[in-house]
Amino acid sequence: MSDRLAVTELSPAAGEYDCVYSLGMDCRPRHIMKHLDLKSRRGPFDWIGGRSVAALIEALQSQCQHVLTKEHLEPYDTLCQEYKKYWDPVSQFLSTHDFALIDGDLEREYPAFRAKFDGISARFFTHIKHSKRVLFFLSVGMENHPDFEPESIAELVVLLPKLQRCLSALCAGEATLLVATFHEQLAQSVMPNIHCVIKHGFVGDTPWMEGAEYQLWESMLAGVCVPQDNTQNLFGSAFSHCDNSG
């Protein structure tokens, strides 16, 4: 981008990792990771929406087996002209990008979606199981509004360490959690192996994840380094990357 500014400060999560994965709850963490060429493969939470850290913990503990189950899917935001959305009120996850907007048929499309989602999930859990240092990037609250943030700051201060411990149990070593939040109070909380960064809502005619918004999210990962993606041994390919300047 021609209007990008140099990132002069390192992320609080700056350092070297075996891999970096998005935990949602919206698409921005995965979007910026792709643009910065952090070579981790796709994970199950990249492009689906979420509202609850408690639900995320349950999804991780069940290895996503009950996320977006067909019997639970309900049409959501049916006036949207960009995506065919389905909400799963049981697992509390939202499918936005998985089904055809025009002439879509859930019965016809779901088996292929499920097979792909299960494959991505299995690969994700296998990868982190063999990775000693993993950075997980979570955006808490799709919007700065109570409808999208059902858990209070006090609840999040309890839930985020529980999430970090859950992730560490799934990895070969220690998991680090980077959390983007609207709330200064949460960002000031001291939690082991958890780093918080402040995000902002951008309104009006600002293009999604361009300009100032892109620069903000880019800065959240400044100094994050993935020198050798260990998917070489697990999946037959290798990548290298270090992002020291943003």
Number of self-contained structural domains? 1
Oligomer: single chain
Number of helices: 7
Radius of gyration: 18 Å
- Alpha-carbon distance between the two ends: 12 Å
Strand content: 15-25%
Class per helix and strand makeup: alpha/beta
Can you count the beta strands?
A: 11
Question: How would the global form be characterised?
Answer: globular
Strand order of the largest sheet: 2-7-8-9
Average pLDDT reading: 87
Largest sheet: 4 strands, parallel
The amount of helix comes to 25-40%
Order of helices and strands: EEHEHEEEHEHEHEHEHE
Ranges where pLDDT stays below 50 over 5 or more residues in a row are: 1-7, 235-241
Descriptive tags:
alpha/beta, Papain-like cysteine peptidase, DUF1796, four-stranded antiparallel beta sheet, 11 strands
Can you walk through the features of this model?
The protein has 246 residues and is of the alpha/beta class. The strands form three sheets. The protein has a four-stranded parallel sheet, sandwiched between helices. It has a four-stranded antiparallel sheet with strand order 3-6-5-4, covered by helices on one side. Strands 1-10-11 form a three-stranded mixed sheet, with no helix packed on it. β8, α5 and β9 form a beta-alpha-beta unit. It is globular.
